[in-house]
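Why run this: before we spend reagent on co-expression, it is cheaper to look at a predicted model of the complex and decide which construct boundaries make sense. The entries below are exactly what would go into the expression plan.
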Amino acid sequence: MANITVNQANAKGMPIQLSPEQIREQLLRPFPTFNLRGILILLLVIVILAWSLSAVGPSELNRITSFADPFIAMGNLILRMFPPGWEVASEQPVQISLFGQTIVDFTITRSTISIPTVEYRGREIGGSMEIGWLPVITAMFETIQMAIIGTLGAIAMALPLSLLAARNTSPHPFFYNSTRLLLNFMRSIPELVYALLFVAAVGLGPFTGVLALAFGSVGSLTRIFSEAIEQINPAQVNAVRATGANGLQTFIYSVIPQAFPLFISYSIIYFEANVRHATILGLVGAGGLGFLLFKYTGTSDYDRVLGTAIVLVVAVTIIDRFSTWLRSRFI
Amino acid sequence: MLEVTDLRVVYQNGNEALKSITFSAEKGELIGVIGRSGAGKSTLLRCINGMQKPTSGSIVLDGVNLTAMNDEQLRKARREIGFIWQEYNLVERLPAITNVLTGRLGYNNSLASFFGYFSTEHREIALRSLEQVGLLHRAKFRADKLSGGEKQRVSIARAISQQPKILLADEPVASLDPELSVQVLGDLARVAREVGVLTLVNIHQVELAQQFCDRLVGIAQGKIVFDGPPSELNMNVLDAIYRFDKNLSEKDLAELAKLRELVPV
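The model came back. Tokens follow.
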């Protein structure tokens, strides 16, 4: 009992032999001891923080000269957003046809209605009001449609790829490594860059957004799917294989059922994320809410920016609740 | 029907699990394999099933040598080898009936199984197997909703639905309480006799093995040290199987003798 080996190593990686008295003395100290190494690390951290801040902190370009300036600037912007406003389309055709049969065909026209003004606690309420179709609603549906199809495209690509990228189902380390390499490459490119590339290839519009979303999420989705496959219980797989089932059958009847809840769960999470990503894609002309945001910021219609943001928040909240409910049905 | 000749298994780490196993078995026999943990019981079953490649020796099932096969031949052969696991190993998220139907996968077309299609004949066999273990009323329950005893019975049904030539059970009741152990092993023995299939059961409870098996094989240190009907099992044989490495003092022996009077083997 003379020397006890503790979980501590010296510079050569050999465990240091400490006597019980030394361990007791170390553990009884109420304050951590500073050594030269600790101080050097602390200094290094401070230097890195200062260096980063010197390059990206506020400068004259931001027109900030005093401490109060940022608050004034932000307050000014926020004031210009109130009250929130929505653009009303002058004419919105509504056409629904199925199998060549027109079911619905009418046009929503903007009209101004006047409401008698009412005096309430010294303030006038009422006046004239514009009613009609809000383009922001069309844009919202377009964003959601883009997210649905984009996510489905990503899932369709991720399912077969995840088989190759999971260590336990990959046919050969060569496939495993090359798929992982491809995925890392795809994952390191953000959706926005995909969108820019596809704008160049297939032009503007929602389809571009769908392609960008699908290719932007397939990398991460495959990685998560393959990790779900790696987590399954191999004993259940062995039991099915032991009945004489072939590779595909074993996969369908033992791997898929086990990974299924995670597949569903992550697909829904990616759908949620894609609704938000689809908004950003509007900035490069892929349509949807983002395009409106881009348009309104360009024309300095900050009340409409706020109006669009409110619609986005409401839509994302509803989708969030819905997908939480949907996930709970599958787990 | 089953001929195991001079079977030897040496693991990568140099551990010799089976030294020289030779025995044969006929159709319809119910054989209990007894021995201490690590004696090589599981290795023997895994060799017959093809999960473990033997170092030397041969296993011939119904005229087919199982030790000299490529992967595809082995897959075909496995269709006729039912396996029952200690931890059931049902696919937990699938209903009981689908778990039993997995026993028919080897006979089903790949594309058909992709779409979950099993012909009425396959379904007939699966339902009959489930009926034989008395769990037809649980057919649509998800496997993770079943109790331990029910799970093991579903796994027996899965093995039976393969219509196997040989049934291998690796500690089928080790995860169950004593009462359920008797019931489940009883079911296994009954079903095996009804179907008339050669069955090998690894088992720790010697009393259960004596009660249900026609023949017992005792393995110690990778060798067969006993092979005969349960009635021939006696204290000396059990010492050879379970206490070969104990140098018992006279005092220990006296205490053991006392215990044996209390608890008849």
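Chain B has a mean pLDDT of 89. Chain B has ten helices and ten strands. Bring this page to Monday's planning discussion.
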